[in-house]
Amino acid sequence: MRLLPYALNHARAVDDVMRFMVIADIILFLIVIVVMLVFVFKYNHTKHSRATSIPGSVPLEIIWTVIPTVLVLAMFYVGWVAYLQIRDVPKGAMPVRVFARQWSYSFEYTNGKRTDTLYVPEGKPIDFLITSMDVIHSFYIPAFREKQDALPDRWRHMVLYPEKLGVYDIVCTQYCGLDHALMKTKMIILPDSTFDSWINSSSTADPLAVSTKAIYY
Ligand SMILES: [Cu+2]
């Protein structure tokens, strides 16, 4: 069961957490409904016209405290493990600065080169350092299931593993004013060699336009 097309391993981890939550919720929902129906029929007023006073039950109270606690901790653990994967910056990650503003993004690479479209090499972890030039935005790449708020005067990290060549949408998911809906751009995952020659050239032209092969379009 795949929720949406995904482009990297973090997306798989996020989807696994989602799947775990949904399956656990369905099981809990069915248990609650079945028990409720059994009680409705078993304790119908025609059979039990007088209510019974039950002063309390320590074993029952322990059971219904321990089981939900274990379930909630299990959900937290599964989510936490996936979250750490997204948060930990691996050695050798390529830093890219992300500037969000009303209503566009721009990206700055280590050598100072700036673009409006994000270009990254295939197979190398990317360490995004994200900030905002004005109000709060939220940098989101749906195919990667990853999102990070862009806050004025602060830098936030987000790690991505671009595994698959391709063109992916980047959007803003924090309502940030009139043209919020138009605040979007593309992330293009290039073969390593194409990226290297583009980043080391003085040209800011689309690297795909100068590439010998039409890879995506
Ligand atoms: Cu925005």
Structure report:
The chain has 217 residues and is an alpha+beta fold. The protein folds into two domains: 9-87, no CATH class; 94-203, Sandwich (Immunoglobulin-like). The chain has helices at 9-42, 58-87, 192-199, 207-210; strands at 94-101, 104-108, 114-115, 118-121, 126-132, 137-141, 146-150, 156-160, 166-172, 184-190. Strand 1 and strand 2 (104-108) form a beta hairpin. Helix 1 runs antiparallel to helix 2 (58-87). The radius of gyration is 25 Å and the shape is elongated. Copper (II) ion (CU) is lined by residues 100, 103, 137, 172, 174, 176, 180, 183.
* Structure class: alpha+beta
The third-level CATH topology of the largest domain is Immunoglobulin-like
Helical segment tally?
Answer: 4
End-to-end CA span:
28 Å
Instruction: Characterize the biggest β-sheet.
Output: 5 strands, mixed
On the 0 to 100 scale, the average pLDDT is: 85
- The total of beta strands comes to 10
Strand residues, percent: 25-35%
Give the spatial strand order of the biggest sheet.
3-2-1-5-8
Rg, Cα atoms, Å: 25 Å
Helix content: 25-40%
Q: What is the topological layout?
A:
Layout: H1 9-42, H2 58-87, E1 94-101, E2 104-108, E3 114-115, E4 118-121, E5 126-132, E6 137-141, E7 146-150, E8 156-160, E9 166-172, E10 184-190, H3 192-199, H4 207-210
Parallel strand pairs: 1-5, 4-10
Antiparallel strand pairs: 1-2, 2-3, 5-8, 6-7, 6-9, 9-10
What key attributes describe this structure?
five-stranded mixed sheet; 2 domains; alpha+beta; 217 residues; Immunoglobulin-like; 4 helices; disordered N terminus; binds copper (II) ion
